[in-house]
Sequence to fold (387 residues):
Amino acid sequence: MGMVLHGVDGFKLSGKLQDGVTTTDIVLTMTQMLRKHGAIGKFVEFYGVGVGELSLPARATIANMSPEYGATMGFFPVDQVSMIEAYLRANKMLWTSMRPHDHVPLKEMKSDWHACLDNEVGFKGYAVPKEQQGKVVKFDFHGRPAEIKHGSVVLAAICSSTNTSNPSVMIGAGLVAKKACELGLEVKPWVKTSLTPGSVVATEYLKHSGLQDYLNQQGFHVAAHGCATCVGNCGDLDGSVSAAITENLMVYSCTYRYRCCCGAVSYCLLNLGDNITTNHISYSGKIPEGTPAAKYLLEYGMEPKNFSSYGGRRGNNEVVMRGAFANMRIVNKLLNGEAGPWTIHVPTGEKLYVYDVAMKWKEMLSVLPNYRVKEYMKKLYKTSVQP
Fold:
């Protein structure tokens, strides 16, 4: 019986964290380094004297980020505990001789953002004309004057279960909220806020420490436990805010590259770039009305209020198929940089949902080429047509 042996990359840690550096800071830096190095499909072992300076929650946070740097798994070896070491040696198991690629230092954030406005449409590029970059959009928010501009925050969430079960990071967030309240700072009312801890334990120590009260004052009430906003399960923005963004501002973009299979000329389903994410490929967020998945559920008598999310219906293969490349923020260059789950049916020039185009080509008994991505090296099967 054959077996695939994964390569193992070592990530050496030395020194210790400086005061004020959080687990989130170090894990994003590690992710950036591993993506640049190329850890796709690898086992990444973290080792070195610096490991001893990391707490158990910090190690768990770093290892849990393995999907973000593409590794099959990230792990820390056991510490030098005599009983465990003796066990591993006896069983010949001890080896004696392993959202991130755009992580920007805080001091460089402003200059990086302005560069993004200037860059051409693509990864970290919005191509906003110079004369429009300072544009301010004023609107009415439930009787109150409001305004936003390019880069304004309209959705703020403490949400990733990678971080929200880490005590130091969560308590740190509570202390920031406490300081903000003491300084008289407050979140703008048109910014949608939420807190979704990774476990009930996190909620309890925030309550007992009194920090949840400060988070509540800033609008970060506990909305649920587990992954939510980080995978798109955040609900809709207020209608006035959505209208202001849609009618006046840019959208988020990311890119991905395709290649045709050898010996065949194929129609392109999607023309993206290198930095595709899992959530772009198989979307987990809310199922919007009018999409192929929504139409499918309507056919079976499901009311829109019960559509739920793609992630919530992952057990239904029909919904999962319709959720492929269904992310509203994916940018397809066939549409000249327009964001959304659509593409062009090349033979006719029709603009349709990606799923609908794929089904058209399937009806034509099309072949399936393999696609390879620099930052997501997995085989992605997309339909194409022989000439």
In short: Residues 8-90 form a domain with the Aconitase; Domain 2 fold (CATH 3.40.1060.10). Residues 250-265, 366-372, 376-387 have pLDDT under 50 and may be disordered. Strands lie at 8-12, 43-47, 73-75, 136-141, 144-149, 155-158, 192-195, 342-345, 350-353.
